[in-house]
Amino acid sequence: MSDSRPELLVVADLPAWLQEPWQAEFLCHDWVHAPDREALLSRVAPRIRGVVTHAAGVVEETLLARLPGVEIVACFGVGYDGIPLAHCRSRGLRVSNTPEVLTDDTADIAVALLLMLCRDLLGANRHLATGQWPRGPAPLATAMAGKRVGILGLGRIGKAIARRLEAFGCILAYQGRQPQEVPYRYYPELRALARASDALVVACPGGAATRHLVDAEVLEALGAKGWLVNIARGSVVDEDALIAALHAGTIRGAALDVYAHEPMVPQALIDAPGVVLLPHVGSATRETRLAMSLGVLCNLRAHFAGEPLPTPVPGC
Ligand code: 8YV
User: Fold this and answer.
1) Considering the domain 103-277 in this protein, what is its CATH number?
2) pLDDT in tens, 279-299
3) Domain residue spans in the chain?
4) CA of 102, closest atom in ligand 1
């Protein structure tokens, strides 16, 4: 008996337990681990109706172009900078993402990174682990309360970071496309925000519009007193300029969860003084990843039932 489930091409490298929610309802083809991708495509391409991708990955336009019957691209994650939206829109493809469910976890990581910088928690841990404590206390660090924190991008995640930092006693300001009804000072110009901040936290979407917004000039404005935190996209920061600023000591330090060419992280960044580096773990909890998987499922279900998508990407 033939299988009548809609067929999906899964280009996201996700563990089996996270794909289970879709596998019962859809016939899934694993692009990532296919031993021969050409053979897979020639077998299934005409029947593929949906593509599942993840926010940290890229869906090549050339791949979508080879799927004549594709109707929807469902993204596991909130960021859709890796999806060729112009191509999708021109073909009338629907595109969905999974906002909201990962906001808290990602904001938590931003605050944790800032706390690690201010209190030099890596240094304190090293002090103990290398047996230095009996010879004397760890060096004093810097208080987080009272620090001026500038947030680049006051969307869902930026606001969740701001709410948390309010509780820490930080003084908040932000830059974004436009001022909002919030009790934080708005800076129309990023360099001015950096100049007025002890720490700059990047929380805006990735993509062409925000590429290298944090460049050498912004880092210079942040200055030798300033820290940079990035939980958004590596593309927003000019990574070479950041590496140069860290090695020259023209900024105080940086804590990053995202990079320009993930999962590759330049050795010069790893070796730079004053850095805390995480391997893109903003949404990486069991609870949130399951909620993201269910978000993908809800969008796929709605699409194949002919209903509006619960969380469509704007304009799709
Ligand atoms: C994940 C993300 O890294 O949602 C995003 O924009 O970057 C993350 O949640 C990713 O989707 C995991 O594969």
Assistant:
1) 3.40.50.720
2) 999 999 999 999 999 999 999
3) 7-101+286-304, 103-277
4) 9
Among candidate residues 29, 54, 94, 233, the one labeled active-site is 233
Residue 228 Cα to ligand 1 midpoint, Å, equals 20
Q: Which atom number of ligand 1 is nearest to the Cα of residue 233?
A: 7
Residue from 11, 32, 53, 54 whose mutation best tests the ligand 1 pocket (most atoms within 8 A of CB): 54
Q: 38: burial class by Cβ within 10 Å (0-12, 13-18, 19+)?
A: exposed
- Asked if pLDDT for residue 3 goes beyond 90, the answer is no
- CATH class, 7-101+286-304 region: alpha beta
Q: What is the mean pLDDT of residues 181-200?
A: 98
- Cα(110)–Cα(103) distance, integer angstroms: 11
Q: What is the DSSP letter of 210?
A: G
Q: Which residues have any ligand 1 atom within 6 Å of their CB?
A: 54-56, 76-79, 102, 280, 282-283
Name the residue with tokens 């949906």.
Answer: 50
Rounded Cα gap, residues 176 and 12, in angstroms? 30
